[in-house]
């Protein structure tokens, strides 16, 4: 990958920031069946950026959503799994505020989740 091809949220827009490579595909948006929403067209109205250690989501008609980037909740109640292609991956849910924001914007149930640091290698579908 070259500078400018990194996506902190898998399938969302490219983020051009010095830290983007470090956070490439660390988050994803899942539906009510815990399956990755992988179609870029579904996420095209969400502008993702990095500012001052926060993952920032913006969309027309929505308040800005700031998610701390380097926080991993150690509470097991927010750990789960999500399906990426044919693989189940350990994730950490980013909470209700992010879920409400995404659900409102996408018009269907959705949650923002972060890949758990101990999830291992992920076989991302093409």
Question: Would you kindly provide a written description of the structure presented here, covering whatever features stand out?
Answer:
This protein has 126 residues and is mostly beta strands. It has 2 helices and 7 strands; from the N terminus they run βαβββββαβ. The protein is globular and about 35 Å long. It has one domain. The strands form 2 sheets. It has a 4-stranded antiparallel beta sheet with strand order 1-7-6-5. The chain has a 3-stranded antiparallel beta sheet with strand order 2-3-4, with no helix packed on it. The mean pLDDT is 93.
Short note summarizing the structure:
It contains 2 helices and 7 strands; from the N terminus they run βαβββββαβ.
Radius of gyration: 13 Å
- E-strand count: 7
> Span between N and C termini?
15 Å
How are helices and strands ordered from N to C? Answer: EHEEEEEHE
Average pLDDT over all residues: 93
**Rough shape?**
globular
Biggest sheet record: 4 strands, antiparallel
- Indicate how many domains the architecture comprises: 1
Strand order of the largest sheet: 1-7-6-5
Strand content: 25-35%
Structural class: mainly beta
Count of helical regions? 2
Q: Which spans have pLDDT < 50 for at least 5 consecutive residues?
A: none
Q: State the share of residues found in helices, binned by percent.
A: 10-25%
């Amino acid at each position: 990958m070259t500078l400018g091809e990194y996506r902190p949220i898998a399938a969302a827009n490219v983020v051009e920031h010095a830290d983007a490579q470090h956070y490439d595909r660390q988050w994803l948006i899942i539906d009510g069946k815990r399956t990755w929403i992988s179609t870029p067209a579904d996420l095209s109205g969400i502008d993702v950026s990095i500012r001052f250690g926060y993952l920032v989501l913006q969309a027309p008609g929505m308040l800005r959503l700031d998610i701390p980037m380097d926080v991993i909740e150690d509470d097991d109640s927010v750990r789960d799994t999500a399906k990426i292609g044919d693989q189940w991956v350990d994730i950490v849910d980013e909470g209700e505020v992010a879920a409400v924001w995404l659900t409102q914007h996408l018009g269907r149930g959705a949650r923002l989740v972060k890949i758990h640091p101990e999830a291992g290698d992920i076989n991302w579908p093409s």
